[in-house]
Amino acid sequence: MLLATVRFAPPPPRVATAAAAAAATGGNISVKPPSPLCLSLKSIPLHPNLMWSGPQLRDGAHCAVPPSEEDGVDMAWAETAEGAYKWRMVIAYDGTKFKGWQYQPSPPTIQCCIENALTCITKLDRKELCLIGSGRTDTGVHAWGQVAHFTTPFSYHCLDSIHSAINGLLPHEIRVREISAAKPEFHARTSTKSKIYHYKIYNGAVMDPFHNLYAYHSVYKLNSQAMREAAKHFVGIHDFTSFANAVHNDRVRSPIKKIMRFDVIEMGAILQLEVEGTGFLYRQVRNMVALLLQVGREALPPDIVPHIIAARDRRELAKVALSAPPHGLYLMAVNYDKEMLNPPEGAPPISFGRTHQISKCKLLFY
């Protein structure tokens, strides 16, 4: 049976007697704890300072469990955090059906789906949640290690329940892999030290249908050694203006980025390009991959890379290569200082998901 998540508003002044408690709630709540069974909210009134949310039963009622010490607010942490709590999530998603990460009013986006799930569970609006990702992935781009944070005015002693509730409300293409308490100074985007992207190329004569949505098919036999030589020219601090598409917003970003490594790894028919950098411009990775594909096809020499970089003109790259398609690209990891990832003192343990066990079960049909 699915259980609801309990959200606590700021605690009311304590009442000393049962009569005072009944008077404070208008006689709508009993001092005696309710049964621990799952009760329909249609049959019991709510305390004004308790708000229930969770999956609906078939009759439309919400399923709720009476609060316990394990579900309450961590007051020690509340005092140090001044009533504000920040939570970090690690998210994986298949981006095939989505219009990228960034929230948009109409088309489905990853951020929109996660905000809807959080809103349903916490009853907070998106402005209160303030969900922020480490970066924007484009339409069709996948992720294994996207990081985001959100805030709430209340805390949890255990994160396993909210973790299960979020994944239960999300479409199957999106999963929260990890959720933890975060320090107030942690920021999913501005606290990053580096990001790792992978780009997968299927380099077989006949495309494997199981890789069709997750790897770019190159019908040309690629020279992986030439691609490695070309990739070395990307490593270091450079002005990557030639590899950035125009962004239609007011945000001005420095074109100077540092690439720590750019590896070309052969795994059978799969050619995997792995790049790690302090940050990336709009479509920079896909544009770098596009140039390496041309080098791998032996249409261009490896030393073309420094010439394109030095030009600092996107039109120079457009003369020799088009942007690589999005479905081969993955955001694999976002790295932070270890100290930044340490949870605050008194915070609940990190949740990596909850497994279920059945001690005795008779299956008549399976």
From TrEMBL:
> Is the keyword Signal in the record?
no
Q: Is Protein transport one of the keywords?
A: no
Q: Which reaction does it catalyse?
A: uridine(38/39/40) in tRNA = pseudouridine(38/39/40) in tRNA
GO BP terms: namely: tRNA pseudouridine synthesis
Q: What class of enzyme is it?
A: isomerase
GO MF terms, alphabetically ordered: RNA binding; tRNA pseudouridine(38-40) synthase activity
Pseudouridine synthase I TruA alpha/beta domain residues are: 90-189, 230-337
Sorted alphabetically, the keyword list is: Isomerase, tRNA processing
Q: Which InterPro entries match?
A: PsdUridine_synth_cat_dom_sf, PsdUridine_synth_TruA, PsdUridine_synth_TruA_a/b_dom, PsdUridine_synth_TruA_C, TruA/RsuA/RluB/E/F_N
- Its EC number(s): 5.4.99.12
Q: Which PANTHER family match?
A: PSEUDOURIDYLATE SYNTHASE, TRNA PSEUDOURIDINE SYNTHASE-LIKE 1
Q: Which family does it belong to?
A: Belongs to the tRNA pseudouridine synthase TruA family.
| Protein's name in the database | tRNA pseudouridine synthase
Native species: Oryza brachyantha
